[in-house]
Amino acid sequence: LELVSAAGRRRTEFRQGNVYVDTVEAFSQAVHGTGEFLPSGVDGLREREINLAWVESTRTSRPVRVQRHDP
Fold it and tell me: Could you please report the per-residue DSSP string of 34-71?
């Protein structure tokens, strides 16, 4: 991926793979105590916070600040 902006160009390489297989493998390792859950519970919380702000912004047609909660 190459991002081009007024600040210049930035290229980022991503590993090729199957995100679904990677997620199931990470879940299996986490259940067996040899890995971490992907996405984490905090990732899920952050997604929910963003979604709530998006819904409110859509409802009111106004910008809404994302309210973060400590896990």
Answer: SS--SS-HHHHHHHHHHHHHHHHHHHHTS--PPPP---
Query: Which tens digits make up the pLDDT trace of 4-32?
Result: 888 889 998 887 888 889 889 999 999 99
pTM attached to this predicted model: 0.56
For residue 34, give both structure tokens: 């040899």
- Confirm if 55 and 65 have CB atoms less than 8 A apart: no
Compute the average pLDDT of residues 28-50: 92
Burial of 12 (0-12, 13-18, 19+ CB in 10 A): exposed
DSSP 2: E
